[in-house]
Amino acid sequence: MSFCASSLERVKPLWDRMLAHPFLAQTRDGTIPDETFATWMQQDYLFVEAAIPFIAALIPRAPREHWTPHADVIAAFAKELELFEERAATVGVNLRGVPPAFVNHAYIQFLLATAANEAYEVGYTVLYAAEKSYHESWKVVKSGIDPGSKWFPFVENWAGEQFGAYVSYLEAELDGLAREAGEGLRKRMYDFFELTVKYEIAFWEMALGGAAWPGTEEA
Amino acid sequence: MSFCASSLERVKPLWDRMLAHPFLAQTRDGTIPDETFATWMQQDYLFVEAAIPFIAALIPRAPREHWTPHADVIAAFAKELELFEERAATVGVNLRGVPPAFVNHAYIQFLLATAANEAYEVGYTVLYAAEKSYHESWKVVKSGIDPGSKWFPFVENWAGEQFGAYVSYLEAELDGLAREAGEGLRKRMYDFFELTVKYEIAFWEMALGGAAWPGTEEA
Amino acid sequence: MSFCASSLERVKPLWDRMLAHPFLAQTRDGTIPDETFATWMQQDYLFVEAAIPFIAALIPRAPREHWTPHADVIAAFAKELELFEERAATVGVNLRGVPPAFVNHAYIQFLLATAANEAYEVGYTVLYAAEKSYHESWKVVKSGIDPGSKWFPFVENWAGEQFGAYVSYLEAELDGLAREAGEGLRKRMYDFFELTVKYEIAFWEMALGGAAWPGTEEA
Amino acid sequence: MSFCASSLERVKPLWDRMLAHPFLAQTRDGTIPDETFATWMQQDYLFVEAAIPFIAALIPRAPREHWTPHADVIAAFAKELELFEERAATVGVNLRGVPPAFVNHAYIQFLLATAANEAYEVGYTVLYAAEKSYHESWKVVKSGIDPGSKWFPFVENWAGEQFGAYVSYLEAELDGLAREAGEGLRKRMYDFFELTVKYEIAFWEMALGGAAWPGTEEA
User: Fold this and answer.
1) What is the average per-residue pLDDT within D41-54?
2) How far does C70 lie from chain D, in Å, by closest CA?
3) CA-atom Rg of chain C in angstroms
4) Average pLDDT of the residues in B173-192
5) For chains A and C, what is the number of CB pairs under 8 angstroms?
6) Is the pLDDT of residue D129 over 80?
7) Which of C212, C192, C198, C203 is CA-nearest to residue C24?
8) pTM of the model as a whole
9) Which of C18, C62, C39, C43 is nearest to C107 (CA)?
10) For residue range B43-81, what is the model confidence (pLDDT) as tens digits?
11) What pLDDT shows up at residue D107?
């Protein structure tokens, strides 16, 4: 079995828990409170922004043939930020000067530390796990959301075909990297796949009401 | 006012909150449950271990005269790990194979990402803030703990004179770095001082019962 | 005086030596042997390629407003590589599988090590110094070369207005960074400006006949 | 055949060239001019110093069991620097404020860039190749030098048993890393082994009279 298929199988209970998260169900069903969705928008805007230095940090470790695709991803993130800004302006959400929630800050540090210190294959695993999670999570939302919803542009962005093709590309590349990897490295890739899914779940949890820094802010 | 004095003043409410944390009070008063202290031991053991690559990552960015002190700190961390192992063996706590609590994992990522990407002065600020926090926190414990307590060796380690001299050295060096820094850099140093204190508080909070990964483990 | 103006003044003898380099004069005058120019093409192709991870490595250290410009520069380098490939195909030069000359390898390591370990301002200084050197060097060539020369597309690329505007942008940004920098950092920026110019001169020297690895290849 | 044995076999002509270098022969035979040896001392002092951040940068990428050995190597480099200072004081060589020769600067950048960007196994290969080269090179000198020579302490340092045991340790570890590595990674490790030997030869060449920066200093 390929590395990606095997990774998904290994974390199946976590993965199912992620896809069944109330944030996704409520967004799909149109019952999510506007201020809850706004919290997610504000935090994910910061997260997408921070994904730019994460990708950039991968490039000096990447094989030559990955440089251009990574540079393209940086450009794609810049476009995602514009999507946030357009939606925020349309629905009246403020994106400026919002401090990162604890879980968001932590997840960003995880991306940056991984890119800086782990083997390239491990960083690539985290990239794939995060993008795959987003693709599948928003497909859950897409399966039932009213196409006229003001949140639909986000749904279309990550659940759509173009993003799906990108995730498939990442999957094929990661499977290739994993085939070349020794036992110890592959073990670490599995661990970081799981860690990423745990951070993804924590992120949805935060959006739903867990933005506080432990011990210093009200929950 | 020096940078360090000014930093402490700026975060005073947070700082007081940290020093008043129930974990410290309960340890001082001898009322802390053994299993709670064991959780802290297990997690802090992982944290001290992770501080080794943090310090190592600072060296290539450090001025020449900081290389040897940083290398000495790595050796000091190795000794701290032995203290944990000695205490753990004595009181029957298992330190092997314990997974990091969410807050601990996050704090470690914060250290590593900061060392990798921020200016050296910012990384040094985080080092100072973390060590100063530990010195003062354990001084709170020392102020009332029974010297015969099985936890006393930890108290002595961080609240003692040798550690205090090390913190004073860091303070003098950091004040020197801050004097040389421009406005924008100094602003970032202040921000990371505060962030570190927030992670410290989150760490005590975690030790007291918040070890779970949000959304995937029971609190 | 601005940092950039002051840097250029400080290295004036080196700078004049660079602009007076025989490689530039011979290219301007149309007397450069084809195989000499081909050596430069092969080596500079490798150098431009390696500039991609250099720029990428700067991004995680860069202020937010520099991320997009740096990403754009990566795209510009990709276009420069296409220029090399188009010229190489037209004039019959092989660009594939050529090993880096010693000086080229060294210069690339200098870029990568600087981006990895030095303060962002120092990395930015190296970027500016290298681009400014290329702009001015190729302006020397442009001042006399036959516009019908088969090498003219290179001349136009670096001596042209678009590249000139980019260099002016870098200059303004670097002057801004230097204004914010403390004395010690500014000193280091000056040192790396000079180092870069020395590597630039070494690169022209290599193109003219010094491609060998010392002690292992014939000069 | 183990990776290290195989690496040595692959670069045999280069390796023999290194061991037959006139600098080594002249030092062995006592015919090396004092000022030539002084040049080597001054440059190697800078090189050993720069090896400290190289090793430090490896630690955050290293497996846990390599952290302490690397920290010990940093301490060993500090002792080597003291050996240089003691010898320099005894024989009247100035070690302060000497600028790096071109080849030395380049070699240092190669170390730092490799530690920053290449897989850990590749950085470890460079470490082993450099230390193995030094051990064998100084054994050539030891085979004939007068034990009363003022340079003998250097010979003893690198050709002695303690250093030999360290090189053997590195060899066993590197062979282990290579066994775990995939084909592509092992190929890159071979390439960097060869590159390191080429830099070593260039270093001896520089000591013998090639300290100039190409095009800007007299040879």
Assistant:
1) 98
2) 19
3) 17
4) 97
5) 53
6) yes
7) C203
8) 0.97
9) C43
10) 999 999 999 999 999 999 999 999 999 999 999 999 999
11) 98
pLDDT at A219 over 80: no
Q: For A103-152, how does the pLDDT look when each residue is reduced to its tens digit (9 = 90+)?
A: 999 999 999 999 999 999 999 999 999 999 999 999 999 999 999 999 99
Residue D210 to residues C153, C213, C215, D101, D204, Cα–Cα distance (Å): 36, 12, 10, 8, 9
| Residue the block writes with tokens 């995880």 | A110
* Residue D140 Cα to chain centre, angstroms: 15
- Compute the distance between CA of residue A166 and CA of residue A55 in angstroms, rounded to an integer: 15
How many CB atoms are closer than 10 A to CB C212? 15
Element containing residue D81 per DSSP (H, E): helix D64-91
Distance CA C133, CA A135 (A): 46
In angstroms, the separation between the Cα of residue B56 and the nearest Cα of chain D is 5
Rg (CA), chain A: 17
Q: Which residues have CB under 8 Å from D113's CB, separation 6+?
A: C108, C109, C112, C113, C116
| Assigned token pair, D27 | 């030092």
8 Å CB contact of C52 and A70 = no
Contact: C70, A64; criterion CB under 8 Å: no
Which tokens belong to A117? 């210190």
Residues of C in contact with D17 (CB under 8 A): 215-216
Residue B217 pLDDT exceeds 80: no
ipTM summary value: 0.96
Q: Tell me the chain D residues in contact with residue C110 when contact means C-beta distances shorter than 8 Å.
A: 105-106, 109
User: Torsion-angle region of residue D152: left (phi > 0), alpha (psi -120 to 50) or beta?
Assistant: alpha
Distance, CA of B68 to CA of D97 (rounded, Å):
20
User: Are the C-beta atoms of B110 and C54 separated by less than 8 Å?
Assistant: no
Residue C86 burial (C-beta neighbours within 10 Å; 0-12, 13-18, 19+): exposed
The residue assigned the tokens 């950092």 is C185
What phi, psi does B214 have (nearest 5°)? -55, 125
D218: confidence class by pLDDT, cuts 50, 70, 90: low
Q: In the 8-state DSSP scheme, what is residue B151? A: T
> How many percent of chain A have pLDDT more than 70?
99
Q: State how far the Cα of D48 lies from the Cα of D59, in Å rounded to an integer.
A: 17
Chain A residues in contact with C78 (beta carbon < 8 A): 68, 71
pLDDT in tens, B88-111: 999 999 999 999 999 999 999 999
Q: Is the pLDDT of residue A156 over 70?
A: yes
Give every CB contact of residue D103 below 8 A, 6+ residues apart in sequence. Answer: C214, D199, D202, D203, D205, D206, D210, D211
Residue D219 reports pLDDT greater than 60:
no
Going by pLDDT thresholds of 50, 70 and 90, the confidence category of residue C218 is low
The closest alpha carbon to D178, from D108, D128, D107, belongs to D128
Joined tokens for residue C120 = 């962002």
Q: Residue A82: which residues within 8 A CB-CB, separation 6 or more?
A: none
Q: How far is CA A123 from CA A114, A118, A126, B137, D58, in A?
A: 6, 6, 5, 36, 17
| Interface touch C182/B184, C-beta < 8 Å | no
Rounded to 5 degrees, what are φ and ψ at D102?
A: -55, -50
> Which chain C residues contact residue D201 at CB under 8 A?
213-216
